[in-house]
DNA sequence: CCTCAAGGCCAT
DNA sequence: ATGGCCTTGAGG
């Protein structure tokens, strides 16, 4: 083998950009493909326990040319992008391999799969050639790409210099980064329990209250330990290896002898870092806009001052992302449910919502702040937010391009994804399509998805609860660290409005179209149970719920077009 | 053996 | 303090 051959076969990071500064990637460093300089910077910072403080708004732009200006923001970005302090060795032992090695290998395969999946929806950067409307992958294409094995991990990655950079969290990342999420509660449950939570087709006998009452462990036990993936083949990542056994990761933190850093690692949930929410939060978005959008001058941090390093780890959207459902969930629900649904488009949409609602409840329960609320308040929050979260989930899947454009139900009707997302509320499908297009063009990413979801759960209308407004502030703070989010908030509010419209529409079917209503299995549907409870509470004069659901809406239409097309 | 992510070195 | 290049060494 010649030297040239060796060079060719060597893992090729050519064209890969460092997610921190955009420089050329030299390999995996501390859990992430980064450049040599960010590797060194991260190592020095952690080894020497350096403490920086940004003299601006902790929102400095970091790129190759200005990465030296603000070490605080640079280090924050390192962490946000996924570099792991545990990978810096406390004992400074050189050489060898650590337990991340096998993860890196899998990550290569994973990245290839993700890239292959996303390549079809990638929007060329402005410096590229003409922009083309995004296309969608088909399950067949995906199967080919997902048959990736460790043998072909050396194949060159998709050239990311030609694509919009986007930080993608994976289940793998969640495993790698955080052994546990909550620190010490009876309901303690690990991140991977959520990320890897298998299955979604449970029986319909349980009510939302029952779901809320059950412990997470109960819930897990009732799920099968593996789940069918009809259209999306799983990659050779051994889920079971890590799913219920968390020792390897826990062991690693001991192995790497970084107990001091392990203590600094965030055990972050919404409720754990209220102290971070300072008076600056409310104005942060405005200043971010000023700093990074309208002003050509980047904020400088001329004299970083020292401050406790813990500052960095209290809050980050990346931490919150770990609880997001995996990207295959919504496609799975849709393709499985469409088979199970007999012949009505509305019934299909409601059943999809039913399946996702169970996931949403489980997700909400894992949140410390949510789980601290009493059951009634939890119910109130869920009643207000489930439809918004549901639409956000489907919107995200649509932005990712993991869904078909239409799904064919039993009677041959083609049902658009918008129709499904909006619970059959055809009136607003074109608005929703526009939202999807906008988000795609804006570079909607996992961070935004995460923020959307939490902002939906902790609905603005529920800010009567102090816990809710605290949670919202915290989300906005964490989101603001990585985004100028004003434009996204606008779209979020549109989605929220669509959700209320859709809930009203669906509830309206009960009187306007009893025939359709009967097809929805009102006796067993969790979604319809939710709507009924909301309606009952409202008629009983509950102020909280009234406030958020009494938006006056157009009268639900009485008919809908059986053949629904995507509009663009 | 070889690989490649760790830590180390040192000119800048 | 930075960052390019060097050395190390467990795992394949």
From TrEMBL:
Location in the cell: Nucleus
GO-annotated cellular components: RNA polymerase II transcription regulator complex
Protein name: CRE-NHR-25 protein
GO biological process: hormone-mediated signaling pathway; tissue development
Keyword Zinc-finger: yes
Recorded superkingdom: Eukaryota
Record Gene3D superfamilies: Erythroid Transcription Factor GATA-1, subunit A, Retinoid X Receptor
Gene Ontology MF annotations: nuclear receptor activity; RNA polymerase II cis-regulatory region sequence-specific DNA binding; zinc ion binding
Domain NR LBD residues, every copy: 313-568
InterPro entries: NHR-like_dom_sf (IPR035500), NR5-like (IPR016355), Nucl_hrmn_rcpt_lig-bd (IPR000536), Nuclear_hrmn_rcpt (IPR001723), Znf_hrmn_rcpt (IPR001628), Znf_NHR/GATA (IPR013088)
UniProt keyword annotations, A-Z: DNA-binding, Metal-binding, Nucleus, Receptor, Transcription, Transcription regulation, Zinc, Zinc-finger
Family matches, as Pfam families: Hormone_recep (PF00104), zf-C4 (PF00105)
Every Nuclear receptor domain range: 15-90
Source organism: Caenorhabditis remanei
Principal subcellular localization: nucleus
Parts forming coiled coils: none
């Amino acid at each position: 083998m010649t030297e040239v051959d060796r060079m060719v076969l060597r893992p090729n990071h050519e064209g890969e950009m460092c997610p921190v500064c955009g420089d050329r990637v030299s390999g995996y460093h501390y859990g992430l493909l980064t450049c040599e300089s960010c590797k060194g910077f991260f190592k020095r910072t952690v080894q020497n326990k350096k403490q920086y403080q940004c003299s601006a708004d902790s929102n400095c732009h970091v790129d190759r040319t200005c990465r030296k200006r603000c070490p605080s923001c640079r280090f924050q970005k390192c962490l946000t992008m996924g570099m792991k302090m545990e990978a810096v060795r406390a004992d400074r032992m050189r050489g060898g391999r650590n337990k991340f090695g096998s993860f890196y290998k899998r990550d290569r395969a994973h990245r290839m799969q993700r890239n292959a999946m996303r390549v079809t929806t990638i929007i060329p950067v402005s410096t590229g050639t003409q922009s083309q409307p995004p296309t969608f992958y088909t399950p067949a294409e995906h199967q080919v790409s997902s048959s990736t094995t460790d043998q072909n991990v050396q194949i060159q990655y998709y050239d990311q210099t030609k694509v919009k950079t986007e930080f993608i969290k994976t289940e793998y990342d969640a495993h790698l980064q955080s052994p546990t999420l909550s620190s010490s509660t009876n309901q303690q449950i690990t991140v991977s329990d959520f990320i890897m939570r298998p299955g979604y087709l449970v029986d319909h006998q349980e009510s939302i209250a029952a779901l809320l009452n059950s412990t997470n462990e109960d819930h897990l036990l009732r799920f099968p330990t593996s789940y069918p993936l009809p259209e999306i083949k799983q990659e050779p990542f051994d889920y079971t290896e890590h799913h219920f056994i968390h020792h390897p990761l826990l062991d690693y933190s001991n192995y790497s002898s970084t107990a001091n850093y392990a203590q600094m690692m965030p055990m972050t949930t919404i409720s754990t870092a209220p102290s971070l929410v300072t008076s600056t939060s409310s104005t942060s978005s405005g200043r971010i806009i000023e700093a990074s959008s309208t002003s050509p001058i980047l904020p400088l941090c001329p004299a970083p001052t020292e401050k406790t390093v813990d500052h960095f780890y209290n809050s980050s959207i990346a931490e919150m992302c770990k609880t997001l459902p995996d990207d295959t969930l919504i496609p799975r629900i849709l393709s499985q449910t469409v088979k199970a649904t007999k012949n009505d488009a509305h019934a299909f949409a409601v059943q999809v919502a039913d399946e996702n609602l169970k996931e949403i409840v489980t997700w909400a329960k894992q949140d410390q702040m949510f789980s601290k609320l009493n059951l009634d308040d939890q119910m109130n929050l869920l009643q207000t937010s489930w439809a918004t979260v549901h639409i956000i989930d489907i919107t995200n899947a649509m932005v990712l391009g993991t869904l078909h454009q239409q799904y064919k139900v039993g009677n041959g009707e083609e049902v658009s994804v918008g129709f499904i997302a909006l619970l059959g509320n055809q009136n607003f499908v074109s608005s929703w399509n526009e939202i999807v297009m906008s988000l795609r063009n804006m570079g909607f990413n996992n961070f935004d998805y995460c923020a959307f979801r939490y902002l939906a759960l902790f609905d603005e209308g529920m800010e009567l609860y102090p816990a809710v407004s605290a949670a919202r502030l915290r989300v906005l703070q964490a989101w603001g660290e990585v985004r100028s989010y004003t434009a996204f908030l606008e779209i979020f509010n549109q989605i929220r409005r669509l959700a209320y419209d859709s809930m009203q529409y669906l509830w309206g079917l009960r009187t306007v179209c009893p025939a359709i209503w009967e097809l929805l299995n009102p006796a067993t549907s969790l979604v319809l149970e939710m709507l009924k409870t909301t309606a009952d509470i409202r008629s009983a004069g509950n102020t909280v719920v009234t406030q958020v659901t009494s938006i006056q809406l157009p009268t639900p239409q009485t008919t809908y077009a059986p053949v629904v097309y995507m509009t663009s």
